[in-house]
TrEMBL record:
It comes from Winogradskyella arenosi. Its main location: membrane. This is Outer membrane protein. It is found in: Cell outer membrane. GO terms for cellular component: cell outer membrane; efflux pump complex. Pfam families: OEP. Keywords: Cell outer membrane, Membrane, Transmembrane, Transmembrane beta strand, Transport.
Length: 480
């Protein structure tokens, strides 16, 4: 009984721990990459590219088909073996094997394999880009939760100080050292901080729900993340010039590779269109056989009277009869040959070459060639535009990262100043040299400077990771 109770307690403990699991950033990113719908769709595109490649390679194999048929004929029909008209009922069976092989088709089969390989590579780049984007979205949403939690911690910590100040002020008011207005001012500050704490808690819940939705997790109530404090990690990327980052981005970024593959695909499509102008040469081979159960008639010589004499004409002028001797035959009905025997007795083979030369098809081929030439030029422009967009995005990310760093450094200096100002105001308030309103204002400025430092820190962390991503560091290898 005790063992059963212990097992039940342990099970409830495990379930409770599972329900209140706290997710790390790495776990969130990995979970998103495994379950995100957009990532799954990109993976399906990659699988389709494998199917297209398999189909393109299969075009080099011969086409082989086999057929068989069974029929029963009643009435006047042609015997499929003797080709004679017969009025009877008989069963017939036929079978065939045919094979075809394309010897030359304007190299279209070769181009299709090349196109399938490029298409698969493009799908892989699209999948990589999708994973990078999803990883960055998850990281941003995760850092937003951490920022909101850090802000809540600041507010709660400062509110503890405010409550202690209320107790001290009450004592001074009762002793007559401070006016009651100072106590009311401190209590008003406490009420305002309580409102800020509630708003900060709401912000945490909203950001957690946003992150859970991004991960496709529906259990919002039990979803939470680890309470980690991310520090700014030194990165060599921050010391590089924007030109170096752009050069690396053009070599590593998936959007450029996708645009490059689109140009190659358009070039292959143009070659495929031109291949329709060439003749097609194919070889074929066919084997067929047949069987029927209908009886047939054979002609036999009468052994008792092997020959007969018949008049075959007269001599012109004399009228003398011309006599001829012929075999004395009669027809005898015999049964059908055995099934196996008929299969090789009645078989046939056909083989040869077929040449198809295109002459005129209503300008369809010519129009297709012109259309693919235009698509090739358009894909080149798209590649050029993708490079320009990438340069613009890198410049923007570079400026944002530099600006975020300056903002963070300024926030640090502001916090130091506000902390000194707060400590000075607190000392003056404790000895009665300043009123509660001035002290509260100093405290509010100090609290806001802490919150601003948190915002600037996580803003810089995220924007630095964006810059690292453009430099070519995979999203799964970014260090926070």
């Amino acid at each position: 009984m005790k063992k059963s109770i212990l097992i039940v307690v342990l099970l409830f403990g495990v379930l409770a721990q599972a329900q209140h699991k706290k997710w790390t950033l790495k776990e969130c990113v990995e979970y998103a990459l495994e379950n995100n719908i957009s990532v799954k769709q990109s993976e399906l595109d990659l699988q389709l590219a494998d199917v297209d490649k398999m189909t393109a390679v299969g075009n080099f194999l011969p086409s082989i088909s086999a057929g068989a048929g069974v029929s029963e004929n009643t009435g006047l029909s042609f015997n499929p073996v003797t080709n004679n008209a017969q009025t009877t009922t008989f069963l017939s069976v036929s079978g065939s094997i045919n094979m075809g092989y394309t010897l030359f088709d304007g190299l279209r089969n070769v181009r299709q394999v090349q196109r399938a390989k490029i298409s698969k590579l493009s799908s892989q780049y699209s999948l990589d880009k999708m994973k990078d984007d999803i990883s960055l979205f998850v990281a941003n949403a995760y850092l937003t939760v951490i920022l909101n939690k850090a802000n809540l911690e600041v507010l709660q910590t400062q509110n503890v100080v405010t409550k202690e100040q209320i107790k001290r002020t009450e004592q001074l008011v009762e002793a007559g050292s401070l006016p009651r207005g100072d106590l009311l001012e401190i209590k008003a500050t406490d009420a305002s901080e309580q409102q800020s704490i509630i708003q900060a808690e709401n912000n945490i819940q909203i950001s957690l729900i946003s992150l859970a939705q991004l991960l496709l997790i529906k259990d919002y109530e039990n979803f939470d993340v680890e309470d980690e404090d991310y520090d700014i990690v030194a990165s060599q990327i921050a010391d590089k010039s924007v030109g170096e980052i752009i050069a690396s981005a053009k070599e590593s970024r998936s959007e450029i590779k996708i645009a490059e593959q689109s140009v190659e695909l358009a070039a292959i499509d143009l070659k495929l269109a031109k291949g329709l102008n060439y003749p097609t040469l194919s070889a074929f081979f066919g084997y067929n056989t047949r069987y029927t159960d209908t009886p047939s008639f054979i002609t036999e010589v009468d052994q008792d009277n092997p020959t007969v004499t018949q008049q075959i004409g007269t001599v012109e002028g004399t009228g003398q009869a011309v006599i001829g001797e012929f075999p004395n035959t009669f027809a005898t009905q015999v049964g059908a040959d055995p099934f196996i025997d008929q299969l090789y007795l009645n078989d046939g083979i056909a083989y040869g070459l077929q040449l198809n030369i295109p002459i005129l098809n209503g300008f369809s081929t010519k129009g297709n060639i012109q259309r693919n030439k235009i698509n090739l030029e358009r894909s080149k422009f798209q590649l050029e535009q993708a490079e320009l967009d990438l340069e613009s995005n890198v410049y923007q990310a570079y400026v944002d990262a530099k600006g975020a760093l300056k903002s963070y450094e300024a926030a640090e200096l502001a916090l130091e100043s506000q902390q000194l100002a707060y400590e000075y105001a607190k000392e003056r308030y404790d000895v009665g040299l300043t009123n509660a309103f001035d002290f509260s204002q100093s405290k509010v400025r100090f609290d806001n400077s802490k919150i601003e430092l948190n915002r600037a820190k996580y803003d810089y962390i995220f924007k630095l990771k964006v810059l690292e991503l453009y430099f070519g560091i995979p999203a799964t290898e970014l260090k926070f």
